[in-house]
UniProtKB/TrEMBL annotation:
Gene Ontology MF annotations: FMN binding; oxidoreductase activity, acting on the CH-NH group of donors, NAD or NADP as acceptor
Name of protein: Flavin reductase like domain-containing protein
Domain Flavin reductase like: 20-174
Pfam families on file: Flavin_Reduct
Listed Gene3D superfamilies: Electron Transport, Fmn-binding Protein, Chain A
Organism of provenance: Celeribacter baekdonensis B30
Length: 202
């Protein structure tokens, strides 16, 4: 099968997001200039550099109670900061529930009864029990091609690691919490198998 993306695949569902998978999920927590807090998952997310550590997150679409983008995007533009929390298999239901279109003044932390803690270097909440959380500072907002497609580039200022996710030899053990990833359609996956391959030397 071959198709031009401008023409569509002719399949019942667009396979694009299933092809580009698995994708890590940024469970983003924010606090807006009004003090309102928000927590929402974004699967167009990845790390893009080591030094300094940098990430990208994209948001698609918008909300009727926002001029541009969704609550997370609006908060990030207002304050310039946000926190990326990493979710494990145990949080799959809460992560999915936090994707509902709650009103701009509703806090997913409160609605879903999720424990909140304060970040150390930025004025932003984080998910208290997350295996890892990254305190991020916005460096560049980018309007992408297509209506409602927005991207942010950010620098990671600080990282929280849950103690039980660290091994005795100092490795961050993803198998201890089975990180969630997004596949296509309504499909998710959890990492439960890890293997090593060393980069070859010529």
């Amino acid at each position: 099968m071959f198709y031009l993306t401008r023409d569509g695949s002719g399949l019942p569902r667009d396979p694009f997001s299933a092809i580009v998978s698995p994708r890590p999920i940024a469970w983003i927590s924010t606090r807006g200039s009004s003090g309102a807090t928000n927590l929402a998952p974004y699967s167009f997310f990845n790390a893009v550099a080591y030094t300094p550590p940098q990430v990208i997150v994209s948001s698609i679409g918008g909300k009727s109670d926002r001029d541009k983008g969704k609550d997370s995007y609006s908060h990030i533009l207002e304050t310039g900061v946000f926190c990326i929390n990493i979710a494990g298999l145990a949080d799959r239901d809460a992560l999915n529930a936090s994707s509902a279109p709650y009103a701009a003044d509703q806090s997913e932390f409160e609605v879903l009864g999720l424990p909140m803690a304060e970040c150390e270097t930025i004025d932003c909440p984080r998910l208290a029990h997350a295996p890892a959380s990254m305190e991020c500072r916005l460096t560049q907002p980018i309007d992408l091609e297509g209506e409602g497609n927005l991207m942010i580039l950010a620098r990671v200022e600080a990282i929280h690691l849950r103690d039980d996710c660290l091994t005795e030899d100092g490795r961050f053990d993803v198998l201890s919490y089975a990180p969630l990833s997004r596949l296509g359609y309504q499909d998710f996956a959890a990492i439960e198998t890890v293997f090593q391959m060393r980069r070859p030397k010529l």
